[in-house]
C-alpha cells in the first residue's frame, strides 16, 4: 500500500467522523481535501490547487440551473401549491380504497417535484395530510411513514436538485440525468400507491374508506388547482425534450410562471421575498459543497485510491450486477448516518470511475445510486425524512413508530431498486429516446 492510498483511507475515515460529529459537509470536504493534497503534494501545491480546482468546478453556466430550481421550489411553497394539489387529489381519490393515502403520495410527488426537498415535502404534507388522514381513522404510524417515504419521490422527477448536484459531481449530462429520473419517480409513485391500496383492501382497519362526498362539479372545479404544477412540468420536460431550451432556461421560465401566479393570487410580497432569501442561502450552501467536493475528489485522484479501487474491481472478475449491489449496500449504510449530499460527495470519486471501467452505463449507475441514496432517509439513526415528518406530527406519534410505519414503503423501494439493477433499459429508455 502506497503512502498516498494510506493518506486517502485516513482522509475518508476523517471525513466520516467529521460529518457524524455534525461538521457541515462542505467544510469537512474542503478540510480533508486540502490537508490530503498537502500530505500528498506539499502545502504550496495544495494551496495553489484548491483555489483553481474549486473555481473551475463551479464556474460554469450549466450550474445556473441549481439556484433556479431551488427558487422554483421555494416559490411553489410560498404560493401554496401544496395545499391546493392535495385538496384536489383528495376529492377525486377519497372513495378509492386507501384513497387519501394515494392522494398524499401523488401530492408529495407533485409538490416534491416543484420543491426539490424531501424534508420540506415531508414536513408540509405532515401538516396538511397527516391530520386529515388520521381524522378518518388511518393508522397514524403508517400515515406518517407513508408521508416520510413519499417525500423522496420529488427528488427523482425533474426538476430535481439532487440529480443536478449528482450530475455536477459525476460530470454526466444533467439533461439526460433529469430525464432518466422520470422513470424511477413514476415507479416509486405507483409502488407506494399500490401498496396503500392493497393494504386498504386486505386490512381495511388500517386505511378505512372516507365517508365525505363531493359532487362532480366540486371535483371538476378543483382541477384548476393543478394547473400551475402541470404548466411548469410541461415547460420543463417538454422544453428539454424538444431542445427549445436548456435545463437552466427551463428553470428560469418555471420561476417566472410561479412569480406571475403568486401575483395573480395576491400572495403577500413578504412571502415571495422570503422565498428569494431562502434560495440564496440554499444555493450558497450547495455551491460550497460543489467547490469543496472537487477538492476531495482531486485528493482521491492524486492519492491513487480511486485508481486502486478501479483496478481492484476490474481485475477481480466482479460482475456489473454484483458491483451495483455492493454500491447500493454501501450507499444504504451511509444513508443511515449521512444526508444524501454527503453520501454522494464521499462515494462518487471512488465508485464512479470503477463503474465506468466495468462498462456500466454511467446514467444507469447514477440512477441506481440515486434510488439507493433515498433509502437512508427512512432508516435510523438519521432518517431525516422521518424526523422531518415527526417534527409536525402530534405528540402521541413517536419517532420509532414512524420508522416502523415507513418500513413497508422502504421494502417497496428496495424491490424497485432491484428491478432497476437488473433492467438497465428502465433507466435509459427515456433519456435515449429524448437525446438520440
Question: Stretches where pLDDT falls below 50 for ≥5 residues?
Answer: none
- Radius of gyration over alpha carbons? 22 Å
What general outline do the C-alpha atoms trace?
Answer: globular
Total beta-strand segments: 0
Alpha-carbon distance between the two ends: 44 Å
By secondary-structure content and strand pairing, the structural class works out as mainly alpha
| Arithmetic mean pLDDT | 83
Work out the helicity level. over 70%
H/E element sequence: HHHHHHHHHHHHHHHHHHHHHH
Task: Please state roughly what percent of the residues sit in beta strands, choosing from under 5%, 5-15%, 15-25%, 25-35%, 35-45% or over 45%.
Answer: under 5%
Description:
It contains 22 helices and no strands. It has one domain. It is mostly helical. It has helices spanning 3-20, 25-41, 43-58, 65-78, 81-93, 99-115, 118-135, 140-150, 161-170, 174-180, 182-202, 216-222, 227-242, 247-264, 269-303, 305-315, 320-335, 340-357, 362-375, 384-390, 399-422, 425-435. The protein is 78% helix and 0% strand. The model has no long low-confidence stretch (mean pLDDT 83). Helix 2 runs parallel beside helix 15 (269-303) and helix 8 packs across helix 20.
Supply the key terms.
globular; 0% strand; 436 residues
Spell out the blueprint of helices and strands.
Blueprint: H1 3-20, H2 25-41, H3 43-58, H4 65-78, H5 81-93, H6 99-115, H7 118-135, H8 140-150, H9 161-170, H10 174-180, H11 182-202, H12 216-222, H13 227-242, H14 247-264, H15 269-303, H16 305-315, H17 320-335, H18 340-357, H19 362-375, H20 384-390, H21 399-422, H22 425-435
